[in-house]
Amino acid sequence: MKNKSSFLPQEGEAHPSRCPDNSAFKQQKLPAWKPQLTIATVLSSFFLTGSFCLSVGVSLILSANSIREIQIDYSDKCSDCSKLRENSSNWNKECHCSVNFTLKEDILGDVFMYYGLQNFYQNHRRYVISRSDAQLLGRNVNIQKSYCAPFTTYRNGTPMAPCGAIANSMFNDTIDLFYNLNSSVIQVPLLKTGNSWWTDKNLKFHNPKSHNLSSAFAGTARPPYWQKAVYLLDEEDERNNGYVNDDLIIWMRVSAFATFRNLYRRVRRIRQFADGLPAGNYTFHISYNFPVTKFKGRKQVILSTVVWSGGNNPFLGIAYVFSGTAATLTGFVITAIHLKLRKKKTHFRK
Amino acid sequence: RFELLEVLSFDSVRRRMSVIVKSSTGDIFLFCKGADSSIFPRVKEGKVDQIRSRVERNAVEGLRTLCVAYKKLTAEEYSNAQKLLQNAKLALQDREKKLAEVYEKIERDFILLGATAVEDRLQEKAADTIEALQKAGIKVWVLTGDKMETAAATCYACKLFRRNTQILELTTKKIEEQSLHDVLFDLSKTVLRHNGSLTRDTFSGLSTDMQDYGLIIDGAALSLIMKPRQDGSSGNYRELFLEICRNCSAVLCCRMAPLQKAQIVKLIKLSKEHPITLAIGDGANDVSMILEAHVGIGIIGKEGRQAARNSDYAIPKFKHLKKMLLVHGHFYYVRISELVQYFFYKNVCFIFPQFLYQFFCGFSQQTLYDTAYLTLYNISFTSLPILLYGLMEQHVSADTLKREPSLYRDVAKNALLRWRAFIYWTFLGVFDAVVFFFGAYFLFENTVVTSNGQMFGNWTFGTLVFTVLVFTVTLKLALDTHYWTWINHFMIWGSLVFYIIFSLLWGGIIWPFLNYQRMYYVFMQMLSSGPAWLGIILLITVSLLPDVLKKVLCRQLWPTATERIQTKHQCLSVEQSTIFMLSQTSSSLSF
User: Fold this and answer.
1) Fewest CB within 10 A of the end CB: N or C in chain A?
2) Tens digit of pLDDT for each residue in B178-236?
3) To probe the interface with A, which of B454, B475, B477, B488 has the most A CB atoms within 10 Å?
């Protein structure tokens, strides 16, 4: 604290100066932009924000009007199947169920088919952590060290492939769509690949390397809730088999909330369905495997189109319109207050 | 020519010192100098009345006076004195007391020689500084060991007392005439009659109709007030005294012993409003008061470094106090209060969405954000901008602060860290967190947000909330910054860019050391979705709008003095600002 040289100049020669430098930084005199909240900037920003939000909101609402969505809950309609599935010893018995619906108008464009679940907490902490990403990368890892427990190995030591609770509880209903054309029934062609993220399918999930798939998974067993082994998930398409199966990949990307939907299939635009789904009667044939009654869950199948602003969700458009109006109204309020105060000031001055 | 035999050193209690010398002719003399109040009682001959009137005249002119007296000692007296001094100096117990007794015995029956007067000029710009501090709402008290006349003259010179200040006296002279009780009551009636029960601090210079009061109290009166009495009325005297002081614009305490200076500082510290006290002094007799006050400032001066050594801050001249308090103090307060409030705000914004998510994940403590984001939020993404704010912010320019001391009142009484301000920031944080979380929730829940129909998972949801969070809190700080140097630009925009680059890198590579790959490509996928972009922009805007609105409305309807100055500079209009501040001030200064 002894600032010697600042007041005794003759001592300055003897001792080095301990004054801070006279630089702009140390003297807090850096050149700076000092913005002020003037009435012009405030008003212009409020009105600009308001108009931007309003325009975006209106365009979102208009684009969302063209989205078509059909949601069908089939947990009630397939009640005998669901009762069958309540008893886990019936696991190898098949159960089929049919749900009809009618399209009054054609659905034009790409049609996506989703399965929806309610009250299924994929976001539970112990569930989310129960996977082995290293195993899914195709590496030879010791899954005992992962967080897959208790779904790691069987009592006889055989490891599960894939391990973990997420993979174990994979959604295994099979949904097919049939179109009633005149008197015949046509199966709607569906695409089962190209539904997961490109990076997931090609970079994050790999099958273990071997000359063929069944030998790659030799020495492993299917998880307890599965009906078939992982290399039998899609025997028609080698590139959709094993860990890189689209359905498995989509299921492994756990959802954020208890009510969610996952992309299941896309309508293949060939033959009668080149423009989408024509109007008429349709039937879903569901092979009911996934039990949901024990935890009071529900299952749906959803057909939907998408636009640039996503799927059928009016929230964003409404929120934008709402904020736009709020900002514009606030702008007017501020203008009114400003004018009233200015009148008062000039009146006062006179 | 004179041989120094003994030195009876100075102490501030008896206020004199003596030396015993032997002249070349063999005579032994005792010379004594000291304050007139301690020399005159011990003088038995000399031109006492003449010198006394001269001393008083000097004091009224503001000169510091000393009296000098002497005594001739016989050899026997000297040897006695020497023995006594020796015993006292070598005493193992109560040395101070024994020495005081010996001094008392030796120093008596003087012959008065005369008096000296020294002009102790005020430091340059002392008057200007004191005026500025008073305009800033700081109560200035002068605590000095000088006589009342000297001190009063000095106070008039440094503009502590103005021409129209009515001086109230609480001195020993008055107390001899009436009892202490009556004097206190009279004074309190006088001050309260004019100002009513509401205390006000006037904008000095503009309020000529408001009566200014100045109080003079001396050390003896103070010790009477502070003395604990057998009945429970001692508290009343102190309370009454403080009540009178609160209504006076300036207080002068003269004839103060160093310990009494500390006593007064303590009294003020413990008074009702618990004001923050600052003590500034330059001599060794100021050390106890510097140590007692909340902030002690020592002036490195001709009287040595004692005060500076014991102080929190040392300055070379008194005038530097003005810039120190009004500019630097003001800046640091604004900076640190914003830093504290902002830290709580950004962490509320950070954690509250995690808390809200628990309602949706079965209360299983699943985190909303990835662990890398959790770790780096407070370290990397949001730390540097506020650090720079705390170092560099200047909400008003330094020249304006020096020119308008009244702006200091805007930050008086810890205004920016009161409960009200804290609750506002917390409420803002909760509001922002609710907007982030529920905005993203309604955007995401059970809907498709991509244009290729694919679904997002929970990590994408969390990353969206986190992105909105980081951008909102950084832009909030950007809106609060008034002084944009190139470093501020670099840090604020750089933090945001760093966040984006980090997210891209973190999610762009399958890091081998990680045992989970849950963030792989999540950030990029989120950015490839149009609704996610629109959602981010909307949520940031909605979070920031209420604060901007509050700022604009408060600026228009209830502007503080600082804001008025800022607008005045903009409009370049010359308007008389007749601002009447009816606030109580609570910081007092004494020197």
Assistant:
1) C
2) 777 788 888 888 877 766 544 444 443 334 446 778 889 988 888 888 877 656 555 57
3) B454
- pLDDT value at B126 more than 80: yes
More confident residue, B301 or B495: B495
The full set of domain ranges for chain A reads 68-305
| Statement to judge: residues B102 and B169 lie in one domain | no
Three-state SS for B181-241 is HHHHHHHHHHHHHHHCCCCCCCCCCCCCCCCEEEEEEEHHHHHHHHCCCCCCCHHHHHHHH
**Whether B445 contacts chain A with CB within 8 A:** yes
What's this model's pTM, rounded to 2 decimal places?
A: 0.86
For A295-317, write each residue's pLDDT tens digit.
Answer: 999 999 999 999 888 888 889 99
Q: Do B284 and B348 reside in the same domain of the chain?
A: no
Both tokens assigned to B472: 């909102």
Which of B318, B352, B370 corresponds to the end of one domain?
Answer: B318
* CATH number of domain containing B11: 3.40.1110.10
- Please choose, from the candidates B395, B546, B553, B536, the residue with its C-alpha nearest in 3D space to the C-alpha of residue B460: B536
- What are the chain A neighbours of B488 within 8 Å (beta carbons)? 32
Compute the distance between CA of residue B132 and CA of residue B142 in angstroms, rounded to an integer: 15
Considering chain B, what is the average pLDDT of its residues? 86
Nearest CA in chain A to B304: A2
**Same domain, yes or no: B46 and B102:** yes
How many domains in chain B?
Answer: 3
Q: Which of B91, B119, B147 is the last residue of a domain?
A: B119
In this predicted structure, the answer to whether residue B455 has a pLDDT above a threshold of 60 is yes
Whole domain around residue B388: which residue ranges?
A: 324-568
Interface confidence, given as ipTM, is: 0.92
Return the structure tokens found at B235: 């508290």
Closest to B5 measured CA to CA, from B105, B67, B70, B79: B79
Q: Is B146 annotated as a binding residue?
A: yes
B457 domain residue, yes or no? yes
CA of A330, closest CA in chain B: separation in Å? 8
Q: Which residue has the tokens 């081998």?
A: B512
Confirm whether B295 is domain-assigned. Answer: yes
Q: Do residues B147 and B36 touch, judged by C-beta distance below 8 A?
A: yes
